[in-house]
# Entry
Amino acid sequence: MNCRYGPNKAYMYAWGLSEGDTALLYGRNYAGTWLWVQPHDTDWKCWVAASTVTASVEIDSLQVAYFQLYVNPSVPAPTGVGASRSNDNVTISWSAAPPAVGLGYLIEARVCTGTYLIDVVYSTS
# Structure
């Protein structure tokens, strides 16, 4: 199974786990669909889809984990970033930053639902 840098398939692959491998559970995303784990053979954590593991605890008993996004320092951040809202619609805009134009963008937003902060992820490529 793939262990990723964030709780969504849009995030890059970080590590591979084979059937029978073990990992320590450190948290979950708000929906419990992704788990924040430390594979047995690493000293860092990554995210796996909850549907791909057999957990030794109830997933809902794990704390919701929020994480810092990894940044590639060789790719500059886009400029002119803005957001506007009209009722329930939010429009995000930015000016492209080379070489990211060819790589695409990973758009990450935290949405407050009143109870939880939900991470919403969208990839342009």
In short: Strands lie at 2-4, 13-16, 23-28, 34-39, 46-49, 79-86, 89-95, 106-112, 117-123. The longest strand covers residues 79-86. DSSP finds one helix and nine strands in the chain. The first helix runs from residue 100 to 103.
